[in-house]
Design a protein that fits this description.
Distance between the termini: 68 Å
Number of strands: 0
Order of helices and strands: HHHHHHHHHH
Helix content: over 70%
Low-confidence stretches: 1-12
Strand content: under 5%
């Protein structure tokens, strides 16, 4: 690689890493959130109060949904301020193109958080951590195998402006994704909540019997 190619190869990984962090960050909070409640017996305390049966579960889902929305809103505000101060240039245009992924990233983040909430609230934090670690180890082995046996030449043709050109060429598809992805994510997030309530209702019934 020439020096310019190495810099381009490094730069295109920045939005990729931001996307990965954005998707996984809310779900990372699930474990300490549930584990701390288990330690302080918050769930048992809420059951003893005159509250609706699924209040505790609903509060966790509502909290993470607010977190994802607040993070999305913060980034959008930051982008708006940046665009006003930076003016029109090629890099600003590139950032505007990458901004179109924010809603899709937030939708994926909400969906992943919902899956983790179902696992942690249904199995408990200790068992859920074992399940999550097993999944991460399998994913790690898959990535390592892909690096050894996959076609890595595809990365040689990727840089930030290649991504920009791809977004320009798929503008209609991106607009459709921006509309569909939050609807799909919210629907699956709600179904995750209902599934968690059902699993925990059955567990409570078995405990009472």
């Amino acid at each position: 690689f020439a020096d310019g190619d190495m810099i381009d190869g490094f730069l295109w990984t920045i939005p990729f890493l931001i996307a990965v962090i954005g998707i996984t960050l809310p779900s990372i909070w699930v474990k300490p959130l549930i584990a701390q409640d288990e330690k302080n017996k918050i769930r048992a305390y809420t059951k003893s109060m005159p509250l609706a049966k699924n209040t505790y579960i609903a509060s966790k889902y509502a909290f993470l949904a607010v977190v994802v929305f607040a993070a999305l809103l913060t980034v959008l505000i930051w982008c708006r301020i940046y665009f006003l101060r930076a003016g029109d240039n090629s890099f600003t245009d590139l950032v505007k193109k990458l901004q179109s992924f924010l809603i899709v990233i937030s939708s994926a983040s909400l969906l992943l958080a919902g899956i983790e909430l179902t696992v942690f609230l249904s199995l408990g934090s200790k068992k859920a951590v074992l399940v999550k670690n097993a999944f991460m180890e399998l994913l790690f082995l898959f990535v390592i195998g892909w690096f050894f046996f996959g076609n890595l030449n595809v990365f040689e043709k990727i840089d930030l402006f290649t991504i920009k050109e791809w977004i320009d060429a798929h503008e209609v598809e991106m607009k459709i994704m921006k509309v569909i992805s939050p609807l799909v994510a919210l629907t699956l997030y709600f179904l995750s909540y209902k599934l968690t309530c059902l699993i925990n209702r059955n567990k409570d019934s078995e405990t009472d019997s």
